[in-house]
Amino acid sequence: MSELKEKLLASKKYRDVCPDTIERIWRECSAKFKKEKDADKAAREALHGVTGAFMTEREYKRAMELAAARDWEALLGMHASTRERLPVESMDRVFDQLFEAIGTPARILDLACGLNPVYLAHRLPNAAIAGVDISGQCVNVIRAFGGAEARLGDLLCEIPEDEADAALLFKVLPLLERQRTGAAMDALMRVNAEWIVASFPTRSLGGRNVGMEKHYSEWMEARVPENRAIAARLTGENELFYVLKRK
Questions:
Q1: In this model, does residue 57 exceed pLDDT 80?
Q2: CATH number of the domain that residue 18 is part of
Q3: How many Cα atoms sit within 13 Å of 186 on the Cβ side?
Q4: CA neighbor of 38 nearest in space, from 46, 29, 49
Q5: Are 183 and 156 in contact (CB under 8 A)?
Q6: 3-class state of residue 33 by DSSP
Q7: Both 19 and 43 in a single domain?
Q8: Could you list the residue range(s) of the whole structural domain that residue 19 is in?
Q9: Cα 212 to chain center, whole Å?
Q10: Which one of 51, 70, 85 terminates a domain?
Q11: Would 157 disulfide with which of 12, 20, 138, 217, CB 3.0-4.6 Å?
């Protein structure tokens, strides 16, 4: 193994990143650059982009405290993507619509989950909920809260084989496709669930409506795999949802 790659894997700076993600980024950068030092620089830049969405040390400590206290409402606000569905009343309305479309699932697989399993564990205490994320912070917080399984995983390395009634892919498909052409379709094809719920942002980070709903509607409908059919299209305050049923 490369000494520089070993340093990346052992780095305190990237301790909360899924090891598979570090391995994948190193492979991609090594294939792109002939010099190992250039590959290392590119890998660190890519990992900086990954960890930019993580909680700060202070936020992470606070999240673990909230998890131990089982303060689920405050905890949801500690993760940027999950926070966009708040307040809780808005989140409830979204999931009311989703469960009306697919029924109340007994087994949920939440991919690139953030802290969403915390909400699901509160709402569906008898369901078997599994969350997968590249962030060790999210995995640790979910485990500390309880009520859901959580593990590290990178969807660009492996699609989990868990059998589920419903799989959630919230705001992740365009990110996969941006990094590897065909990755979004591959995920939709291979997820082992009766229902898939995929979502997309409809407003910019600044809260502006810049045609994102139309863009992502066209994007999604052009990528529905042959083993799936669109069962419903729903909208929340800042998010577009597609419900796909297995054929």
A1: yes
A2: 1.10.8
A3: 13
A4: 29
A5: yes
A6: coil
A7: yes
A8: 3-51
A9: 19
A10: 51
A11: 20
